[in-house]
Design goal:
Layout: E1 3-16, E2 19-25, H1 27-30, E3 38-42, E4 53-61, E5 66-72, H2 76-82, E6 89-96, E7 108-114, H3 122-128, E8 133-140, H4 149-154, E9 158-163, E10 170-171, H5 174-184, E11 189-193, H6 196-209, E12 213-216, E13 232-235, E14 242-245, H7 246-249, E15 252-254, E16 258-259
Parallel strand pairs: 7-8, 7-11, 8-9, 9-10, 11-12
Antiparallel strand pairs: 1-2, 1-6, 2-5, 3-4, 3-6, 4-5, 12-15, 13-14, 13-16
């Protein structure tokens, strides 16, 4: 269970059109946060939706007590959140999620993300890069949507960027380049976050090739603690399949343990 705190917005950046990076002063959250966890953010402005907005953690600075998160304006809640200015206090609950990325002593890892699903993978790559050979695959629809290339280059040994239309770097889907690299040498672990079709493809490939894989799932989460039952997921580990919840049991799962 995370803590509920009012956090000062100390930095606001426009990453791309409609995509914002917020840095908040939140030592109580930063001290506990792990790669793969998320925040539930309350938009306090007049006319804002009642429910909090679930947003993944992008970067953790424990010593400075800072937490960074990135979000895309999609609805009224995120639109109003984007209007906050430096100095504002933001009501945040976190860190949430009992399932975070398992960071073990892997020699070689592959990290694959698609679109805005790449952002939760930054903290993971940063921590793994201290002890592992890290290859990051980032897939986007086109050149205009490519974001944070320099930031991910700093936390990886090798960065592969793909665009569906070939307008920037490699043409095609990121998973195709992951598959080609695996023909030469398989990683010890694959980590993935992004659109559901991509996650399904990564999961299927990992299971076929017998490569350990962890997936971070994104669902609509109203409460963030498993009370509203809005983010059900079928968990197939154990003797009998059961329904769990992305917010409480995840958002990170072993690929073999969930049906997606």
């Amino acid at each position: 269970m995370g803590v509920k705190v009012n956090c000062e917005l100390v930095k606001k950046e426009v990453v791309a059109e409609g995509i914002y990076k917020f840095t908040v002063k939140a030592p109580a959250i930063a001290s506990k946060a792990k790669a793969g966890q998320f925040l539930e953010i309350k938009v306090s402005k007049t006319g804002a939706p009642f429910l909090r907005r679930p947003i993944s953690i992008y970067n953790i600075c424990k010593e400075e007590g800072l937490v960074e998160f990135i979000f895309q304006v999609k609805g009224e809640g995120t639109k109003l959140l984007a209007e906050e200015n430096v100095g504002a206090e933001i009501d945040i609950m976190g860190p949430l999620g009992n399932g975070s990325f398992d960071i073990s002593d892997y020699k070689k890892v592959a990290i694959i993300g698609g679109g805005i699903g790449t952002y939760p993978l930054h903290e993971l790559a940063k921590e793994l890069n201290e002890k592992s050979d890290v290859t990051v695959y980032m897939g986007f629809r086109n050149k205009d949507l490519v974001t944070l290339e320099d930031e991910f280059a700093k936390v990886s040994n090798r960065l592969v960027i793909t665009t569906d239309d070939g307008s920037y770097k490699e043409k095609g889907f990121a998973i195709n380049f992951l598959k080609e690299d695996c023909k030469k040498e398989k990683p010890d672990m694959i980590y993935a976050c992004g659109p559901l079709p991509m996650l399904k493809a990564v999961r299927e490939f990992a299971l076929e090739e017998n490569i350990p894989c962890q997936v971070s799932l994104e669902e609509r989460m109203g409460c963030g603690i498993g009370a509203c039952l809005g983010c059900a997921i079928k968990i197939i580990s154990g003797e009998e399949p059961r329904f769990g919840h992305v917010c409480k049991d995840g958002p990170v799962f072993n690929a073999k343990d969930v049906e997606i």
